[in-house]
Amino acid sequence: MDAKTVNKFPIRDYLAAQGIRPAKDNPRYGFYLSPLREERTPSFKVDYGQNLWYDFGLGEGGTLIDLVMRMERCEAGEAMRQLERHIDRMPVFSFTGKNPVPQRSPSIIVEKVRLLENPALLDYLMERGIDLDTARGHCSEVHYRVANKSYFAVGFRNNAGGWELRNRYFKGCTSKAPTTRHGDYPTCLVFEGFMDYLSFLTLKRNPTPPYNVAVLNSVTNLAKAVPFIASHEQVYAYLDNDEAGRKATAELKIVCRNLSDQSVHYRPHNDLNDYLRGRRPVKEHQRSRGRKL
């Protein structure tokens, strides 16, 4: 198998097999958290049509082989051997014609759910400015498998019984659904992601606020959450200060009887977690205070 043939294999399918999924996606391209470095804003672009990648943070890009060389820190020959073994396990992939047969992304198989205590995950939450006791009260440590490789992440339950998964290198889910938590309250708080929800709780220093809560887990889940959100007398929206967040807020204003857009309070930050990180330094003593010895 020559380099030209190997480079026809879809980069997005290779990344999916490594448990790496796009943070922003459309039919033509996807933006990922870079697999080559640590970042919080997706700046790693994969062009699905040309099957090329470009890391805007590094100013570098290339083919699938180039990517594997960078990810695995190996020479071209070793990268090709790894890819050939990977492709051999994908019998439905075809190299004939201009358009390869699309692949389904490997499923995320949850293997174990436990109390949140892994040091790497606690460090990740601290970097995001999240209070660890608050995180433990709302999240779990989820161990999962993708294509025979094992991973772990901070897990947040959604209404489909699945998990929203986050760690330094991965943002994904086992099923697409919002998360709603409700009691006998007339007010609902709406967040785009669970990190924003945890940021709110950290800022308020209140692990159990006297409000109902809707965490969209993605603005694409808005329609699923609207019946719950719109049933409240008062709604406070803490969505992102970007085009998608503003559009979702505008849609909520149409269906909610009384909606207050809270994003004005954390501009020019993109979201509530950015605001939290911008105003509060991570405390080194937090981990030792929260972790069991």
TrEMBL record:
UniProt keyword Zinc present: yes
Region described as Disordered: 270-293
Keywords noted in UniProt: Metal-binding, Zinc, Zinc-finger
Bias (Basic and acidic residues): 270-287
Domain Zinc finger CHC2-type: 33-86
GO annotation, cellular component aspect: cytoplasm
UniProt key word Metal-binding: yes
GO BP: DNA replication, synthesis of primer
Record GO terms (molecular function): DNA binding; DNA-directed RNA polymerase activity; zinc ion binding
InterPro entries membership: DNA_primase_Znf_CHC2 (IPR036977), DnaG_primase (IPR050219), TOPRIM_DnaG/twinkle (IPR034154), Znf_CHC2 (IPR002694)
Record-given protein name: DNA primase
Organism: Alistipes communis
